[in-house]
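Slide 14.
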Amino acid sequence: MIQRVGTTVRFALVVIVLLFVATHGSASAPDPFAKLQDRLIKDGFDAEGIDALYRQPGVAFETRGVSLFFRHSEARLNYGQFLKDRRIKMARQYMLDHSGALAAAENQYGVAREVITAIMLVETQLGTLVGNQTVFNILSTMAALDDPVVRKAFWTDLPKERRLKRKAFEKKADRKSSWAYAELKALLKYVKAERIDPVAIQGSY
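Slide 15: predicted structure.
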């Protein structure tokens, strides 16, 4: 009986470890956000606030979500679909249904309601596809790829049968990590001004 319990416990621990790795990404980088946090602090963000933020339970290195950036090419999407009559009619109806909010945004930010609606159509199908990924985790993971150690661990964790060639991966990682860091800083400034928990914001990868 004791032996059976011991075996069960050991098996459960193995499962927990496997689940943790599968969900939270690379186990070969002990603290993949360490250098990212240092960088944010050097750029003027409060050290205690950054430390507390990255210690939150919901914060994790998202190998699974970010890996899609290195397999999926937006250039291959059929953008012509958004020019079809059905889509245009949906967009026009959206403008009617949300005329008040669009007018307010147009007055405040100086962006035409048609432009706002067009972006909404392409990016979220008019708000029907907003994603379920934690935006903070995605941006942090991508920005952390600026660290060579983290990048190497991430490359190792990518599915070999579908990942980019190493040279293409490096080029894209350079571009995406730089973009993500700028977006991450903008997000942190926004949530501070609006008093929003950044970990609670969800979106697409």
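Speaker note: Confidence is low (pLDDT under 50) at residues 1-24.
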